[in-house]
Structures are given as C-alpha cells and as structure tokens.
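Tokens for chain A. Residues wanted.
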C-alpha cells in the first residue's frame, strides 16, 4: 500500500489541477486503509493535503476537504492530531465556506454541491476546534461565526447542516468571551432564542433545540447577564422536558414495529431514537455542568449584584452588555438562577426517572439482539450522562432537595441494584461513581436506617468489589467502602462489619497489580481504623503484622510504577508512602498500651 499512496502524495503537488484533484479523490477513497498503515504515512498524506485547502482551484479545495474529512472519520485521533498541527487550516475551511456562499459553480462551471461541502466543512471545523485552542482563536478572529449563523437562519431545511452548525457552536461557546460577544448581539441572540421557541415535530428537531439551549447557557453565563431570568426558565423547562421523555416506551414501539417494518423505515425510526438519546445526553451533561459552576460555598459572597437591564429594551428582549465581560468569574449569578429554576422543577426526581432497570434491559437487548453499535453507544452515553448528573446533584444539593435521608438511602439501594445487573464496564464505573457520592452524603448523617442499610447491603457491595475486573470501578468501590467503614467506626466500632471491611481492603491492597489501587485501599485502611476504638478489629485480623510484611512490597511497587501514575494517582501514592510506616508504628504502640 505504501508505494501506491506515495505516488498519490506526489501527485498532490502536481502543477496540473486535474492531477491534484484526482489525487485527493483517490486518497479519500482509500482512507479506511490507513488504519493498518504506519502513522508516519498518515502524517505525510495529511501534511500534503492541508495546503490544498488554500489551492487556487476551488474544485481542488473541495476534494482536499473531502479527503481530510474521510481520514479523520476513519482514523480518529491518529488523523486529528496531524490535521490540527496546522491551525491555519481553520482559516482555509472558513474561506471555503465563504466561497460556497458566493459561488454556485467551480472554476470549470461544474455546479457545487453546496450542502455537502458546507456539511463537510462544519464537521472538519468541529474536529479542529474541539482539539486545538489556536484553532478556536483563529475562528474567533474570522467571519466564521457570521457564516455559521447564516446556515442556521437560511431557508434551507437541511437539518443535517443545521445540527452540525449548532454542534460547532456548542463546542466553541464554552468559556469563549469573543464568541459570546458575537452571539449576544441582539439579532444573533434572537436567532438562537427563536430556535428554542419553535415547536418540534421530531426528536431530530428536539435535539437541535436542546443543543441550542446549551449554547445559550454558555453564552449567557460567559456574559453573566442577570436580565435573562425568562430565558433561564425556558432552558430549565426544555432540559427537564427532554429528560422526562420515556425512552423505553419509544424503544418498545420500535421493537414491536421491527417485525413488520421495511428496512429503510426501521432505519429512520432508529435514527429518531438516537436523536432522543442524544437530546437527553446533552440536557443531562449541561445540568451537571450548571451545578458544578456553583461548586464553592465560599464564593457566594463574591457574586456581583446584577445590573438593571436597559430601560429602553423592548419587552421579551434579553439585554447583554458587550463591555466588561469577565470570563474569570468563579460563580455566575446566571448559574445560580438556573439552579433555582431546576430545583424548583424537581430536577432530581426527573433525572432519576430517566433511567431504570428497563432501560438497562433495553441496552442489553440492543447489544445482544439488534447489534446496532451506534444506538448502543447513544444509550450508553445517555446513561453515563445521567449518572454524572446524579453525582453532581447529590454532591451539591441540600438534603431536602434530594428527598431527605430516606430518599438518599433509597437512591443507594437503586444504584446497587443497577450495579449488580450491569454487564458493561464503562457503565459500572459510572454507577459506582454515583454510588460513592451518595454514600459519602449518607455517611455524614446520623440516620437510623444507616446501620440497617450496611447490614443489608455490605456483603453485596464487597462482592461487587471482589469480582470487579476494571481498576477504575474497583477504586470507586474502595472509596465507597471507606466511607461506610468510617461511618461504622465512628458510630459503633464494635460492629462485626468492620472485620469484613478490613479483610476486603487488605486483600485489595496486597493483590492489586496497579500501585495506585493498592494505595487507595491502604489509604482507606488508615481512615477507617484511625481511632483506637477499632484496634480490636486490627488485632483480630492481625492487620499490623500483615501490613509489616506488605510494606517492602509496596515500596518496591512505588519504585517501579510511581512515575507512570497521573497527578491524582501520584498524590494518593505519595500520601500512603508517607503514612504507611507511621500507621504501623502507631498501631503497634497503641495496641501495646491498651494491652490488646
């Protein structure tokens, strides 16, 4: 293959326009074969294609665009890193979009397939701007926003193109002051508001509205405009309305219809379901981000008071100041406003209701019976977004907003049930992450059902940790067990469950192949058994003696693996390194002093 590709790479620099265009089209047709080719060859071909986006011939520019898009689609991150190596590609793609607006034919009089070129251009911009900050800067300094907005406001009903346009703006609008200034201009803002106010007749149109809501939130949060309370109510209502749609009912209709439906009709129904799942995913991810913005209680006093909106504004207008925009504000008044809107609309209940055991069964059905990977991926991403959102809600909201103490305990039991039913590693990781957030909140309470909950579910949770093959999920279970153990040790150190916890944590610490997982388990042992009231458990398990034997092995692991740990993992490893010998020494002396 290499010899043939090198021939076409040489043709990309030919003086003949036809040869350059033919070379681009040939490489586009071979793009799927680069997965097996050396990465250096992929680099060479992309490096040769990029300049052709600025070719004198419009037809060559279009062919080069198609080739680059195919290479990115078929070769993922391996191709993208070479595409973004030249951020000026952004300017070239924007120029190509402009040329499509200004011309109906190429230089040879051949009619342009405008929609196709514009769609490919927008998708390439998504790849570029999603992976390169310099690309975003160049986009901001160009007429890109104006051109992409024109695709949204045009009379063309090509929803693929409009959806690609809003997906690009969604990526670009995060913490982007320059774009926020452009989009907050009255006529542009009204364009976005009009998109979310229009009725939707399909899940495809719903998806476009939800992504537009996410863009509006990003823009208004960046400007921190306080006159947007009406818009915040609309956004909250649309997000929760999307989350409330019953996927299982729609899926059951699809399964029933699939027996008597033609293939092309079935494909259309599956596409609609994918847009429903994507709508719910974006809504859940944005809600999760909203609660993250209001993370620190210490920042509440720093919120600047809202300025009154312009008295000359017409009713229903959202007034945004172009000046004095501060992207570094740690807490947006707008975010607190939206949090209030969401909680007043019972966001927690609606997020919880958007996924249940029936959805998990649907996921397994899609995986095992339908073998539809794109639908399966959408379902998994929606589930992961729900669990991430749930974790943030549990962490940030007051107890009464979470259904009280009983509501939290019920939530833990529901998550444990999901964990025991799930067969997906990635989903199990997200379930145990949400479970950890829930248990940490529960452990801070003195609730009469806590001991009952531990007695009922501890064995099941320990088995989940023992049988888990995924290190990230196991780390979540270890942290959850640590929170439970600390709670038991504080309230009733005589409980026999502490011995079960000691056995589990030491087993993970001594048997885990990865250093940082061992460190997580050891740190949990230090926390759970910190107080002298728990020394009887350590004595019964002979923990001190076992940890003395484990210490040299752990230090050897540190020498071998610590450099390969990421920042968070290295921090926990360093903490355990410092405390391991001290813990053994202290427990040896305290056990002797108390004659255990």
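Reply:
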């Amino acid at each position: 293959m290499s010899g043939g590709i090198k021939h076409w790479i040489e043709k990309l620099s030919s003086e003949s326009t036809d040869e350059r265009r033919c070379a681009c089209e040939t490489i586009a047709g071979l793009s799927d074969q680069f997965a097996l080719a050396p990465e250096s060859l992929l680099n060479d071909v992309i490096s040769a294609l990029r300049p052709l986006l600025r070719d004198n011939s419009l037809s060559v520019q279009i062919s080069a665009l198609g080739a680059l898009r195919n290479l990115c689609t078929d070769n993922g991150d391996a191709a993208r890193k070479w595409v973004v190596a030249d951020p000026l590609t952004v300017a070239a793609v924007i120029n190509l979009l402009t040329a499509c607006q200004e011309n109906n034919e190429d230089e040879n009089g051949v009619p342009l397939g405008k929609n196709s070129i514009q769609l490919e251009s927008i998708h390439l911009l998504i790849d570029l701007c999603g992976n390169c900050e310099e690309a975003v800067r160049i986009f901001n300094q160009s007429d890109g926003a104006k051109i992409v907005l024109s695709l949204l406001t045009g009379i063309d009903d090509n929803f693929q193109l409009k959806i690609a346009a809003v997906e690009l703006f969604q990526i670009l609008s995060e913490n982007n002051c320059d774009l926020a200034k452009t989009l907050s201009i009255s006529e542009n803002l009204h364009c976005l508001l009009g998109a979310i106010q229009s009725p939707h007749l399909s899940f495809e149109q719903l998806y476009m509205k939800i992504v537009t809501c996410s863009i509006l939130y990003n823009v208004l949060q960046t400007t921190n405009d306080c006159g947007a309370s009406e818009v915040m109510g609309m956004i909250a209502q649309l997000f929760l309305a999307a989350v409330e749609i019953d996927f299982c009912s729609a899926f059951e209709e699809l399964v029933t219809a699939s027996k008597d439906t033609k293939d092309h009709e079935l494909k259309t129904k599956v596409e609609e379901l994918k847009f429903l799942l994507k709508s719910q995913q974006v809504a859940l991810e944005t809600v999760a981000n909203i609660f993250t913005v209001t993370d620190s209680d210490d920042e509440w006093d720093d919120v600047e008071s809202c300025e009154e909106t312009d008295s000359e504004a017409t009713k229903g207008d959202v007034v945004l100041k172009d000046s004095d925009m501060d992207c570094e504000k740690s807490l947006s008044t707008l975010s607190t406003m939206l949090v209030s809107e969401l909680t007043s609309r019972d966001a927690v209940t609606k997020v919880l209701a958007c996924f249940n055991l029936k959805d998990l069964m649907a996921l397994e059905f899609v995986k095992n019976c339908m073998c539809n990977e794109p639908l399966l991926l959408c379902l998994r991403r929606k589930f992961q977004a729900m669990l991430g959102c749930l974790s943030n809600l549990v962490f940030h909201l007051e107890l009464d907003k979470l259904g009280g103490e009983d509501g939290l305990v019920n939530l833990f039991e529901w998550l444990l049930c999901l964990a025991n039913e799930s067969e997906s590693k990635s989903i199990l990781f997200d379930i145990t992450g949400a479970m950890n957030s829930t248990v940490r909140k529960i452990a801070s309470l003195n609730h009469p059902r806590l001991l009952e909950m531990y007695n009922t579910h501890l064995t099941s949770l320990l088995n989940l940790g023992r049988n888990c093959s995924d290190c990230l999920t196991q780390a979540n279970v270890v942290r959850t067990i640590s929170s439970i153990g600390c709670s038991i040790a504080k309230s009733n150190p005589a409980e026999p469950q502490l011995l079960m916890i000691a056995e589990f944590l030491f087993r993970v610490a001594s048997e885990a192949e990865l250093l940082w997982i061992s460190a997580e388990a050891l740190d949990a042992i230090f926390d759970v058994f910190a107080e002298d009231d728990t020394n009887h458990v350590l004595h019964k398990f002979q923990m001190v003696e076992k940890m003395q034997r484990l210490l040299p092995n752990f230090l050897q692991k540190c020498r071998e693996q610590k450099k390969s740990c990421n920042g968070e993992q290295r921090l926990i490893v360093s903490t355990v390194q410092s405390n391991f010998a001290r813990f053994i020494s202290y427990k040896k002396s305290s056990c002797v002093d108390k004659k255990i």
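Residues 192 and 212 are 7 Å apart (CA to CA). The chain is about 75% helix and 0% strand.
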